[in-house]
Amino acid sequence: MKRHLLPLLLTVLLLGSSGCGMQTELPTAEEETFAVLTDPPTEPPATEPPPITEEPTTEPVLVRVEDPAETPHIFFHSLIYDPDLAFDNDGEDDGYNIYMTTVQEFRTILDQLYENDYVLVRQHDIATETEDGFVPGDIYLPEGKKPVIISQDDVNYYNYMTGDGFATRLVVRNGKVVCEYTDKGKTMTGAYDLVPILDEFVEAHPDFSYNGAKAVIAVTGYEGVFGYRAVDNPDSPDFEKECKEASAVADALRNSGYEIASHSYGHINFTKSSYSTIEYDTNRWEERIGSVVGGSDILIYPYGADITSNIYHDAYEDTEKFRLLYNHGFRYFLNVDNTQDAWVQLNTRYVRQARRNLDGFRLYYYPEKMKDLMRHPEAVLDDHRPQPVPKI
After folding, report:
1. pLDDT over 60 (residue 228)
2. What is the model's pLDDT at position 314?
3. Do 136 and 25 have their domain in common?
4. First to last CA, the chain
5. Are the C-beta atoms of 76 and 106 separated by less than 8 Å?
6. Three-state helix/strand/coil letters over 28-89
7. 140/31 same-domain check
8. What is the distance between the alpha carbons of residues 309 and 51, in angstroms, rounded to a whole number?
9. Is the dihedral of CA 374, 80, 198, 226 positive or negative?
């Protein structure tokens, strides 16, 4: 519409408006056009859409673990990756069947622990050493969650296991610890034992780990450590190279949330061994292995054989064997006892804890005694395991 028509149209509209005693006239075409141009739109003008705001996430309520001494501790030996090779009637079958756990069983156990609201904690989390001695640790978990400790013994990959379906050593690849595994002359790297399998599980379920905790890795020394044989042979041309590689594995393990423990140098029985034998063995571990892996204040007794069966504090501390081990820096002493779900002795000078083995023997004969850990322990046993499992 031309601008000079607007005043005219306004005048027409005013004159044509209805009043008392006046006749209303129909709007002209120009008036209708002007109304269309001037009436407010029936919809609001387009504006930018409001920003999308995410719903605030609710942080889980953290609750202090009332009694860290009730933390169960479960352990494994080297995992069987290929049961067909482990159980091939070459003479080691019964031992593997009794004392080892398969990769499939371990994965199922992790699933069930997670489903049953367990969370991994470190050995050092359950008790802290202060100037006044050890005190219960401050562990804060989401409401309804429960702490558990996992450890693995003999992470050495002994010669007798070669060709029997086990990993052969630990190596560092891209900052992560994985396993080497040899099959038909071909060496591969991947998740063939506890460490990388547990790493993958925690990566997929980060809430399964308290502050990044993983497991305690216990090592002997008479055939090297982590599969590096030359570590125990200073005369080997590979001694320095393998010490450096084994040390890198230890560093990577610690950086990833693992703790390292002594399992003695020669896998000795601390109950039966004399003071002089324990002294020699402890010195040997420190010189050959502790110097490579960075030492440890955790001692895991081979065979679960504690220095004494006496459960009283004074009876433990007053022994010559304890004083020897204490003077070598050990503060956490771990044996084996399946009679209770969890047992921890907290003292001003030490922490003593019982562990429970989840191996072929216990999975086969005593699944009901694992009900506190798993809702369906009877479903863990690997079908590839020969049955019945031999008795000890």
Report:
1. yes
2. 86
3. no
4. 105
5. yes
6. CHHHHHHHHHHCCCCCCCCCCCCCCCCCCCCCCCEEECCCHHHCCEEEECCEECCHHHHCCC
7. no
8. 68
9. positive
